[in-house]
Specification:
Shape: rod-shaped
Largest sheet: 5 strands, antiparallel
Strand content: 25-35%
């Protein structure tokens, strides 16, 4: 909504937790200002929602503003980054200094913990916020490596079974060849005996 304005993150007096205040101007049918409506958004809701998502041991979910790139909420929380801190320039999802991208994926090292993460972000429709989900590159590759090792191990087992079968076939063929040769030798001996004793058969 065009007349909806969001505050920076503040600590609520009554609940003593981080909140954002949404303010909307009320106007009559002719457009004259008649008042203001405020709504308090408790950021604990977002932290609970974010924590229910599996982003791996080094993953991050963050909500930040489109207009000034200030952090609104982050999970897991960190002592090194706080609400209302402006994200570093190279972290910001910008096509250039004037045009913000509505969605995208970037790979960046976090300045406060050095973890390289792959972030996918999306601008929220009708609200001045980006939602970003970052998975640690090492976690993503570790899962891929486990699958690759599983496939490699399965292939190795298959090759070993195939080699054992081929060895068995080769030994069976050697035994069969020996038996054929033995039978041929016995047949020759019988013929020689039959040739020496023609009347006995």
């Amino acid at each position: 909504p065009g007349s909806l304005v969001f505050s920076d993150v503040v600590v609520g007096r009554n609940i003593a937790r981080p909140i954002v205040i949404a303010t909307c101007a009320l106007r009559d049918g002719q457009g004259a200002f008649i008042g203001v409506v405020n709504a308090v958004i408790d950021l604990e809701y977002f932290k609970t929602l974010f924590s229910s998502q599996d982003v791996g041991p080094n993953g991050v979910i963050a909500l930040f503003r489109k207009d000034n790139f200030k952090l609104v909420a982050r999970w897991p929380e960190s002592e090194k980054v706080h609400p209302n801190e402006v994200l570093p320039q190279y972290v910001r999802p910008l096509a250039n200094s004037d045009q913000r991208m509505p969605t995208g994926t970037i790979e960046i090292p976090a300045p406060f913990d050095g973890v390289v993460r792959i972030f996918s972000f999306r601008a929220l429709d009708r609200y001045p916020f980006y939602l970003a989900v970052g998975l640690a590159r090492a976690d993503v590759l570790a899962a891929w490596q486990v699958r690759a090792q599983g496939v490699g191990l399965s292939g190795l087992v298959l090759l070993l079974v195939l080699a054992a079968l081929l060895r068995r076939l080769w030994r069976t063929e050697i035994v069969r060849s020996g038996m054929v040769a033995d039978l041929a030798g016995r047949e020759r001996q019988l013929r020689m005996i039959a040739d020496h004793f023609p009347g006995s058969v």
